Amino acid sequence: MPGLSPKDEPQVQPDWISLLATAIDREDNQTPYYAQIAESFRSMIDSGKIIAGRKLPTNRELAALLSIDRSTAARAYAELTRLGYLESHVGRGSFARKPLNAGSTVAVSESEAVDWTRKFSRANQSIYDIFRSETETYEWKPDLISFAGGIPSFDSYPTEDFESILGAIMEENRARGLFEYSPAEGHPSLRRQVLFHLRRTEIPAQQEELLIVSGSQQGIDIVSSVFVDPGDRVVMEDPSYLWGGCSFKNRQAECLPTPMDDEGIRLDVLESHLKRYRPKLIYVIPNFQNPTGLTMSLERRVALLALAGQYQVPILEDDFVGDLRYEGERLPSLRALPGGDKIVIHQGTFSKALCPALRLGWLVAPQEVLGRLILAKRASNLSTNSLSQIFLAEFLAKGLLEDHLKSVRETYKRRRDTMLTELNRAFGTNKGITWSKPEGGMFIWMQLPEGHSTKELLLHARDRNVSFAPGHLCFLSGENTSYLRLCFIQNDEATIKAGIERLRQAIESYFDLVKARRSNSSRPVFAGGGHTFI
């Protein structure tokens, strides 16, 4: 069969039915289907039947073509990736790739050819491995209702206020500052306003303790660079913020998963970690935790601080949505508690309550630590973008933040309440499905009955144009597959209602499949050879 080139004009879609006709030998009880499929693709890429760069079928399409389940299709693609015959791109799909050592005839000299897969760091590979099997799951689709992201909706942004601020700066000939570097520690005008904001929320901070950063992610990254060496241990809640864990792993740290109960991080497990491993850092999200929405109780905060002090382990307190409380009493930050200013690095951001594109947040740290953090920030990006800092400083100076927070709290509370009502309507009679009821923040944490996987459910959800964040990505082990995270602030009430109805249909379809799979399964566990589970 002639080679199939992605450069054909006009673009001709491959006859995948013919190409894959012999991909599986169903009489072969020794070789798993995924391995047969991977070998078939490898052979066709080596022979030129599939040219490097050709877009391959999606997991769903491959499963339909071969009459297999999608997990088998995904595993075949994962094997091809491991062998170097497939590369995936978020939003674009999966593409055939021919490794340089596979007899390539491309006219590239030995000195020019670089096998990039051999150059990536172990730390980067560990992060890549988390996501390589997830790529197609998050491809954008028209009319998709997404509960996956952790971002505000466009209608909550203070666009008119920012337009007015920009106009005033230009009219008053103050534009020069927008285009110049700011000091590494932050623009003086923004530093003043952030200090006022922190004091209003009863978080103690002085000029010499404050650093402006380019969002929470940079805050975590530079704290990691200051404290974490390869092989060091970092305590994390389990589950926790995915990209926080990636930042620590990028420093080649070992993250110690610490489970939570209804009051927050479990101190018995934490103390065991502190005694046994002597970690460098404890990372926690006390308010409306990502992904669970849980708020750490005051008693647990006090006890956590005492334990960290006893073992002399610093705490990085991530307060990414502390301003988004809709009910209940505001609790003091860890840094605001007695002794907290000696051992807590407090982090906050304007990304969630205001708008993410500002990429502005802060770190408050003991004075002897701040100098090190400033140097780490210089090594990261020299200084934070001046335009965003000046805009935000003006916004804060005009007293606009409090009005904005009042408005978005009311909006997000309605959206939270709508989602909780719709979840109860859709699943209230199903005792096996549970979900959290957060007092603030942006996430609801949902759990399916034991034996069900939200990784599989997501495929059914995508068929119905609804998506969510599968919870296994938030666990350090990646093995807790019965959870999912729903963001309630991003969509209006009507969209939330429609999205939960789609989710209900997806869960119903998936549960029917699981039920049929269990009732029809009569094959012995180890049928097909003794090496199935190696």
Mean pLDDT: 88
> Globular, elongated, flat, extended or rod-shaped: what is the shape?
globular
Radius of gyration over all CA atoms, rounded: 26 Å
Segments where pLDDT lies below 50 for 5+ residues? 1-11, 525-534
The share of residues in helices is: 40-55%
Tell me the major beta sheet: 8 strands, mixed
Note the topology:
Blueprint: H1 16-19, H2 33-47, H3 59-66, H4 70-83, E1 86-89, E2 93-96, H5 122-131, E3 145-146, H6 159-171, H7 188-200, E4 210-213, H8 215-227, E5 233-238, H9 242-250, E6 254-261, E7 264-265, H10 267-277, E8 281-284, H11 298-311, E9 315-319, H12 340-343, E10 344-349, E11 361-364, H13 367-381, H14 386-397, H15 400-427, E12 434-435, E13 443-447, H16 454-463, E14 466-467, E15 469-470, E16 483-487, H17 493-520
Parallel strand pairs: 3-14, 5-6, 5-8, 8-9, 9-10
Antiparallel strand pairs: 1-2, 4-11, 6-7, 10-11, 12-13, 13-16, 15-16
Helix pairs in contact: 2-4, 3-4, 7-14, 8-9, 8-13, 10-11, 15-17, 16-17
3D structure, described in words:
With 534 residues, the chain is of the alpha/beta class. The chain is 41% helix and 12% strand. The chain is built from 17 helices and 16 strands. The strands form four sheets. Strands 4-11-10-9-8-5-6-7 form an eight-stranded mixed β-sheet, sandwiched between helices. α11 links the parallel β8 and β9. α3 (59-66) packs across α4, α7 (188-200) packs across α14 and α15 (400-427) packs parallel to α17. The model is unreliable at 1-11 and 525-534 (pLDDT under 50).
